Amino acid sequence: MHRTLLELGRDEELLTLIEDFVDSPEFAVRLRTDGDSVLRARGIKLPEGVTMQVVHRDDGHPRPLLRFTFAVRGLRMLAYWDPESGACARVRGPHET
Question: For residue 84, what pLDDT is reported?
Fold first, then answer.
């Protein structure tokens, strides 16, 4: 789990993508609608088993979050980037949604 988070956090191209996500609502829309193409165009390869998705907060705020998801030993790891509050990570058990 920690290795994957470190790998994501050390990828300079991915960090640039996150900066662009924070700075540009239009770019966030592009990531939401066709994130795989954006990653390919920038030459970014996520670690094996990691997916990226633009989601919205559960508390009614309209701003998007960038979420990376992967599994380790039956646990689901969610790493988020919130343009206002920064990064956070959550671990969910096998029976949590």
Answer: 82
